[in-house]
Amino acid sequence: MYTKDGESYFIVDAHIALWDARPANQLNIHGKQFIDCFYDYHRNLSPESELWPYEDYLYYGGERLMKDLFEDGYVDHAIFQPARLGAFYKTGFGQTEEAFDLARRHPDKLTYNHCWDPRFEQAGLDQLRRDAERFGLKGVKLYTAEWQGRSRGYKLDDPWSYRYLEACQELGIRNIHVHKGPTIRPLDRDAFDVADVDHAATDFPELNFVVEHCGLPRLEDFCWIATQEPNVHAGLAVAMPFIHTRPRYFAQIIGELRYWLGEDRIQFSSDYALWTPRWLIERFVDFQLPSDMTEYPPITVAQKKKVLGLNAAAMYGIEVPAGLGLAEPDPVAV
Amino acid sequence: MRERQAWRALDAVLDPELDEPITDLDFVRSLEVEGTRVTVHLRLPTAFCSPNFAYLMASDAKDVLSALPWTGEVVVCLDDHHDSDLINRGLAADAGYRGTFGDEAEESLEELRLTFRRKAHTAAMERSLTSLLRQDPELKPHRTVLADLPAGQATDALLRRREALGLSTDPASKVLVDDHGNPYPAEETPVRLRFARSVRISIEGNAHFCRGLLKTRYPEAKANA
C-alpha cells in the first residue's frame, strides 16, 4: 500500500520475474546478449539513484525480491510472468522452482503464472495440465518470439495455440499475458503484429488477453484492436519508466490508452527486476499531464487507483482490504 | 570528397520503422574510403533489433553506395547483432533477403517496407492537419487540400511520403486520405485523425527509445537523443 496526500493506493505489480542470467546459466552468446539488452533498458530508463550493478542484475534472488517489492516497494501483491527462453539459458531465464517456492510461502503476496509453448504440441499440452494443477494456475505468460530449434516464434492463432487456449479455458486459466514487446522477435513481416491477439480474443471471449508493454512498439495497432475486443487489456511493463526519462511520451501513452481502452483495462507493472516498483509508484501517484497537453483529460486519483492495483486485483480475484477500493457513494442511513 | 559523397548517399537510407535517416540516428559506426573501395560498419540500439529491418537497412546502404559512379567494392557490415554473421554473409554474397535468411523468410521485404511507408505517411498527414487545427480550430480537416498547407518542412515531408506511396501530390488533393489516397467520409474524420495521432505518437516514441538505447549501448555515439 502507498499513501500520499491522504489517499491510499492498493498496489498490484502485475509483471515481475525471478531470473538467473549468470554466465553459468547462459547456454550461448545469446544468453549474454539478452541480459545485456535488458541491462541497457535498465540503464537507459532508470534514475541515477536506482541503478543496479551489473552483477546484481544478473541474479538477485528471492530474498532481495521480497525486500524490493514488499518492504521498500509498497507492493501488496505481485504476479510472476516467467519467460522460459530455453534456447538461451540452461535452466531457463525465469526460475520456476525458486519463484513457485516463494509464491507457496507467501500466497497472500505472490501469484505464480507459468508459461507454455504450442510448438511442444501434445507433450506440452499434457505438461500444461500437470502444471495447472501443480501451480494452481490462474494465468500464463506467453513469449511468442521465443526461439525453438529453427523456429523463431509462433502466433497466437496457430492451430496448436488454439488447442492450448482451449485447455486454458477448460482448466480455469483465464488470464493470458502475451509479450509482444521489445527485445526478441521472430523473422516475419512485422514481428510485433498484434493481429493474432485480435483473432484469439475474438474466438476466446471468456479469456482475458493482457498485452504486455501495451503493444509498444506498435501502440497504435494494439489500441486499434483493443477498442474492438473488450477482453484485451494493456500491461504497462516497459512503458512505466518513461515517466522519468520522457514524461511527455508517458503522458501520451497513458492518454492514448485511456482514450482507446478506458481506465479499467490498464494494469501497472514494474517489470521487476528491469526496474524496481518503489520509484515508479511514487512518480505515477505524483504524475499529472503537462499543462499544455490539452488533448487529454487530467488523470484522476480514482484512475490511478485502478491502474495501480484495482484492475489487476479484479482480474485475479485478489481481495482488496476495506477502505482501499474506490469510495462507494454513502449508503442511505437507516 | 568521396567520403562526403558516401555519407550523403547514406542520408537516403531510412530506418523504415522510425522514418528517419540512419545517419541522423547514428547507426553508421564508421565509413572508410580507400580508392574505389568503401567499407561501412553499422550498429543498432540492441543486439535483438528486428533482423528483417536490420537486413533492410544494411542492404539499402550497400545499394546506395554501389550506385555511386566511382565505387568498386562496397563492404557493409552489421556489428554486434544476434544475426550479424548471417546478415554479413548474405550481404557479402549479395544473396538477397531470402538467400540470407533461407526458409525463415516467408515474404519479400517489400510488403514490410510498404507497411511502414504507410505508417510514415499517416503520421506526416496528422502532423500537418494538427498544426493547421491549432491555428484555426474551425478548420474542417476533411475539406483541407494540399494547397491549404503552409510552405515548410512538414508539408515537404508529407509530399515526399505521398510520392513514396504513389499518392497524388496535386494541390487540389485532399490531405486526409487512406493508404490508397481515398478521402474518408466526413463523419469518419474524427476517429481517423485520432488514430493517425496514435500512429505518430508510436513512431516518435519508438525513435526516442531507440536513440536512448543506442546512446546507452555506445556511449561514444553523438548525444542527439
Can you tell me about this structure?
The complex is a heterodimer of chains A (about 325) and B (about 220). By secondary structure, chain A is of the alpha/beta class. Chain A has one domain (about 1-315): TIM Barrel, CATH 3.20.20.140. Helices cover about 40% and strands about 10% of the residues of chain A. In chain A, strand 6 (about 115), helix 5 and strand 7 (about 140-145) form a beta-alpha-beta unit. In chain A, helix 5 runs parallel beside helix 6 (about 160-170) and helix 8 runs parallel beside helix 10 (about 245-260). Chain B is elongated, with a radius of gyration of 20 Å. Chain B has about 220 residues and is mainly alpha-helical. In chain B, strand 4, helix 2 (about 50-65) and strand 5 form a beta-alpha-beta unit. In chain B, the strands form two sheets. Chain B has a three-stranded mixed sheet. Classes of the chains: A alpha/beta (about 325), B mainly alpha (about 220). The interface between A and B is large, with 39 and 35 residues. Chain B: InterPro entries: FSCA_dom_sf, MIP18-like.
Task: Quickly list its features.
heterodimer; A: 334 residues; alpha/beta; TIM Barrel; six-stranded parallel sheet; three-stranded parallel sheet; 11 strands; B: 225 residues; mainly alpha; three-stranded mixed sheet; 7 helices; 48% helix
- Spans of chain A of 5+ residues with little confidence (pLDDT < 50)? none
**Shape verdict of chain B:** elongated
Biggest sheet: strand arrangement of chain A: 6-7-8-9-10-11
From the spread of the alpha carbons, the general shape of chain A counts as globular
Structural class of chain B: mainly alpha
Q: What's the structural blueprint in terms of helices and strands?
A:
The complex is a heterodimer of chains A (334) and B (225).
Chain A: E1 2-4, E2 7-9, E3 12-16, H1 29-45, H2 54-58, H3 61-71, E4 77-80, H4 96-105, E5 110-112, E6 114-115, H5 121-135, E7 139-143, H6 159-171, E8 175-179, H7 195-203, E9 208-212, H8 219-228, E10 232-235, H9 242-245, H10 247-260, E11 266-267, H11 277-286, H12 301-316
Parallel strand pairs in A: 3-4, 4-5, 6-7, 7-8, 8-9, 9-10, 10-11
Antiparallel strand pairs in A: 1-2
Chain B: H1 2-10, E1 14-15, E2 20-21, E3 28-34, E4 37-42, H2 51-66, E5 74-78, H3 84-92, H4 96-101, H5 110-135, H6 153-164, H7 189-217
Parallel strand pairs in B: 4-5
Antiparallel strand pairs in B: 1-2, 3-4
